[in-house]
Amino acid sequence: MAKIAIGINLEFVRHHDKPFEWGVEKAAKLGYTHVEPMVHWGRELLSEAGYFHSVSMLDDPLRLRRACTKARVKLSGLSAHTPLCKPEIGTEYLKQAVRFAFEAGAPVINTDEGPKPTWTTRTEDHVLMRYTLMEAARLAEPRGILIGLECHQQYSRSPEGLDKIHSLVNSPAVGINFDTGNAFLCGQDPYQWLRRVAKRLVHLHAKDISIQQSGAERGKVTGTPVGCACGDGVIDWARVISIVRKECPRDIVLSVECGTVEQAERSIKHLKPLLKSR
User: Fold this and answer.
1) pLDDT digits (tens, 9 = 90+) for 181-203
2) What whole-number distance in Å separates Cα of residue 113 and Cα of residue 136?
């Protein structure tokens, strides 16, 4: 039976114009035990100025470790999304993310196939994805880092599509980062899909979808950056927790994906009692 922890993706401070360390401290004060930072390649003006939470992979990875140690939280993983269909971008990005995660102390890096090139076929895209994933997996395996493939784009919008991407590389380093909100918006049953990937699950994005967004976008989009507060939307979190606890072979962090500090506070107040009651 899997143990479940409640973490948060640092996107919850994106609109507050605050740096990475501020987000980590705020997450800890709200009661989260884990954080999922976003990393980027190169340099980004707002991050360098302290107005954005993303961390450059040119920085010292120990920056993340020190901030988490100070706040007494752990890293659940890194948000390292890059287009797997574009190996000129994704290959070196993911390889660097693996090395960065290893030194920072993050067990998982999360990614997806990303927007595809406009001129490639489905068959060509899967070959390109296989190349990118294989290169990343070869670095991830000896370091004990897991790669979480997320349902988020054109090919992973269905259970069969995500399975196809997962099967491209036969590696114990490659698993699934399931996103409840994206699965729902794709028009799928998120609970059936979660059961389908439970044995391969390495991380979970706890994203709720408001009734308004559901009515406007379900079946029309492949995902959304962040959701509403957990408990304010359409996702049955007691059911999600039950599936993860009973069917996942490894411990899992539910990494909340919401858009504001206030939503983050409501999310953990909703989720904590559910963990205790199950």
Assistant:
1) 999 999 999 999 999 999 999 99
2) 13
174-179 vs 146-150, strand pairing mode: parallel
Domain count of the fold of the chain: 1
CA angle 221, 163, 120 (to 5 degrees): 65
Structure tokens of 204? 């979970």
The rounded distance, in Å, linking the Cα atoms of 9 and 256 is: 6
Do 75 and 36 touch, CB atoms closer than 8 A?
Answer: yes
Alpha carbon 150 to chain centroid, angstroms: 7
Structure tokens at 186: 């794709």
* Residues in CB range of 88: below 8 A, 6 or more apart: none
Give the SS3 label for residue 49: helix
The identity of residue 148, as a single letter, is: G
Which tokens go with 210? Answer: 């408001």
Q: Are residues 247 and 10 in contact, defined by beta-carbon separation less than 8 angstroms?
A: no
pLDDT in tens, 135-173: 999 999 999 999 999 999 999 999 999 999 999 999 999
Let me know: does 20 contact 67? Beta carbons within 8 Å: yes
Residue with token string 């919850």: 12
3-class DSSP state of 259: coil
- The predicted model scores a pTM of 0.96
pLDDT at 278: 53
Enclosing domain of residue 51: 4-277
What are φ and ψ of residue 109, in 5° steps? -120, 135
Cβ(11)–Cβ(256) below 8 Å:
no
CATH number of domain containing 135: 3.20.20.150
